[in-house]
Every structure is written in structure tokens, then in C-alpha cells.
Predict the 3D structure of the following.
Amino acid sequence: MIEFTQVSKYYQGRAAVNALTLNCPEGAFTVLAGTSGSGKSTTLKMINRLVEHDAGQIRFAGRDIRDTDVQTLRRRIGYAIQSVGLFPHWTVAQNIAAVPQLLRWPKRKINDRTDELLGLLGLEPAQFRSRYPHQLSGGQQQRVGVARALAADPDVLLMDEPFGALDPVTRAALQREIRRIHRLMGRTIVLVTHDVDEALYLADRVVLMDAGEVVQQGAPYALLRQPASPFVREFFASSEPGVRLLSLETVAQRMRAQERFNGAAVPYNMTLREALSRFVELGVVRLGVTDAAGQPCGVLHFNDLAGAEPSV
Ligand SMILES: Nc1ncnc2c1ncn2[C@@H]1O[C@H](COP(=O)(O)OP(=O)(O)OP(=O)(O)O)[C@@H](O)[C@H]1O
């Protein structure tokens, strides 16, 4: 969907991004991760031409972005940033409707879309539609920012540290929300973060950057299990790679489906990381597993947490 070929950007003669070649596949959740100053935001902003690249080629849906009118390009690309940037004198509904208005959508369609997005992001439309940004908490503002970026049903959603500056609980809730929305809508998303946990939780594909270059890109599992360089290992090793691996899999992937157990149970879609916590908390070596209807569907053994690798 978005392809960079040998793309560079220079500031005062220094490369902020150097000969970058990367691919953000259609429908995938791509996360640009890396240390501060590694060129993540610059890379993201080059996609919607907030920053113009100096060398190489960027293609969007098969076309060179320089061959597309900037406004047309931006209408196809939603953009959400940490500082939110809501218009302070506009209500929540007016903020969300900004791009659909520009596109002259009929009023009815705009209203329906606004309410749909508010609902999707966990904000009761009747309660929030008419509020102004200053009447919202930081987390609610971030949600409205994401709703606004999604409003005109863009092909791609770009997010630059959209959950930064939030407390851990609200941040986790919004991460769950955006992951759910991604699965629901199958939208192509490119998100920038320097948070290792966030990258691994959200990404189908991680692009790890350092000093303006891609050091490794691929499925989170591959980066954790086969780091291409000491830098990659170091980036993830700062906190418990084993536990991180567990957070990428669910109970259903390791349970023994033919067994039944009458003791404590966990849901099939719980991550193995959470299941590990339950094992330790309860002091047990087996946990029953329940399906979506709450019916027993297998047993998870503590030993199986260290079992065979899933396919990547
Ligand atoms: N407008 C600018 N003028 C000059 N230098 C810039 C400009 N924007 C970015 N840079 C430089 O380019 C490099 C990459 O910056 P960028 O913001 O893309 O990094 P980042 O990985 O997003 O960092 P962070 O996580 O700290 O936001 C940095 O060295 C930065 O100082």
C-alpha cells in the first residue's frame, strides 16, 4: 500500500532519514519503532507530504505520491497526533466532521458517521456530540482525535504517538480500542511509537529504526526470536523478551483441546502473558479454558507455556 524505495530526507545537510526502503502492506498494522531522533516521525510525515522527501520514491497505492495532488492525497490518509490538535471552538461533532464537510457529504450522512465513530471509540454520542474540547479529559480528546482521523473513511490511518502523554490505564484502553477497530475495519495503519510494549501489542509488522535507517522489519515474533543485530536484541531486551513473546500468543494456541479440567478457568482469547500471571497468582499448574460462550473447551498446562513455536 505504501512503499518507500531508497528515500532520504536531509536537514542542514544531515540525513534525518537515509536511503529508507520499507513496505506497509494493505490492511496491515505497521508500527515504526525506534529510539528518539531515529527518523520515525519524519518517515510518517513524508507519507502525507507534510514533509517532502529529497531523494528516492514513495508510492501510495502503486502511484508516486508526487503525482497525486496533496489535498487529494491527504483526504485518503487520516492523521492523528499526540497533541490531538482539535479545534477549540468547535464541538466534538464539528471536529469529527471537518473532512466530511470539506468533501460535502450530506448532513445526514455526516451525523450518522459521527455517531458511529463516537460509539466505536466508547464515547456515548448523546453525551459527547455537543461538548467542546476543553470539556473533555485528555484520553477523551485523544479518542476524538482518532475519530476525526477516521471520519472520511480514509484508506490509510497515520498515527504519531497518538497515546503519548496518557496514564497507563487510559493508554492500554485506547490501544485495545484501536486494535479492535483495526481488526473490524481492516484498515491500513502506520503508527509511530518508541514504546516497545505498544509496538509488540499492536503490530502485524514492526519497522525498527535507528539513526535514520531501518535496522530490521518484519513480524514482531521474528524480531524477538531472530534479531538481525545487537541493536535489535538490545532494543527488545531492555525488558523481558520471554514475557513479551508470551504476550503475542493466546491461550487457544497452546491449550490441549481434548482435555477437561474442573478447577479455575481462563478464556480462550486471553494472552499467554496474562495466563502466566494467573498460574502464579493461583499457584496452580493447570487451568481450564472456556470458549466465547463460557463453555469448557480445553486445558492449559503451565509447562506448555514454553512449548513449540507458533508459525510466523
Ligand atoms: N524540521 C526539522 N529541522 C531540522 N532537523 C529536523 C527537523 N525535523 C526533524 N529533524 C531531525 O531529524 C532527525 C529525526 O527526527 P524525527 O522527529 O523524525 O525522529 P523520531 O524518531 O520521530 O524522534 P522522537 O521519537 O524523539 O519524536 C532528528 O535528528 C531531528 O533533530
Summary: The pocket of adenosine-5'-triphosphate is lined by residues 11, 16, 34, 36-42, 194 (CB under 6 Å). The mean pLDDT is 88. DSSP finds 13 helices and 13 strands in the chain. The radius of gyration is 21 Å.
